[in-house]
Amino acid sequence: MVRTRTDAAKLAEAGYVRLNGARVAASSQAVRIGDVVTLALDRSVRVLRVEGFCERRGQAAAARALYHDMSHSPG
Description:
Distance between the termini: 23 Å
Largest sheet: 5 strands, antiparallel
Strand order of the largest sheet: 2-1-3-4-5
Shape: globular
Strand content: 25-35%
């Protein structure tokens, strides 16, 4: 999605992030397992369901295991 926490905060504060369908007003909004996060990026929209959290930063493959991308559902 984005590379840094600063970039993620800017997206949220600019109104490009929704949490369970509601626009996120601040980057400090709490997120829980099972929540659905919608991100409006350059020319795409990503819909992600939170599957878990980690204690510290890790590799990209480990991070991908913490969410389910619902954007590309068969249909």
